[in-house]
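go over whats below:
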Amino acid sequence: MRPGRQRILLYLALAAVAAVVLLYPLYLVAGNAYLRHGGLARLLNRRPERLRITWGSAWTVWPGVVHVQGFELRGQSRAVQSWLTVDRGIVDVDLPSLARRELRVGSLVGSGVVFHARRRLDAPPRSVPPRPALAPPIPGLANPPQPPPEALYPARGNRPPWRLVFSGVQLADVREIWIEGRRCPTSPFTMPTCGAPAR
């Protein structure tokens, strides 16, 4: 290889290293400020009656990897309302997907988990009638919702809604899974213990 080409490659390598060395502290400051001061929360929670994501504290030390405490996700569709809490977790987020209105989580490792889901009482009828007395509570959501989120946020043109995509989920210390009349207060969570209706 010619000396001129070697110098160019050396300069390019040094420039790449310098860019990483300079950009990493910038990412730490900007990324943590974005998490701490509500930038991401405002982006995700524009329609809180439909989807609301909050956390007690969150920080990042590597691009896309977020450590979170006191995570809560509450949402509803035309038929179902759900609520998820995780005491502590580490989330690997695909940052470019946020520009496509997707929260794409490559892996999520969490502990201290509670999940509730219930059918909306104003949902289309089904063969099994709803039993609201056995449905789980969901903080902040009335059942049926008044007004319903689809009335608050009518469809606007071709703009897609936010999508949540989770893969590689590992959960420990699952405290409760409560779906309609099936309540599973167990840790670790095992499906066979969930056969009896909630009381």
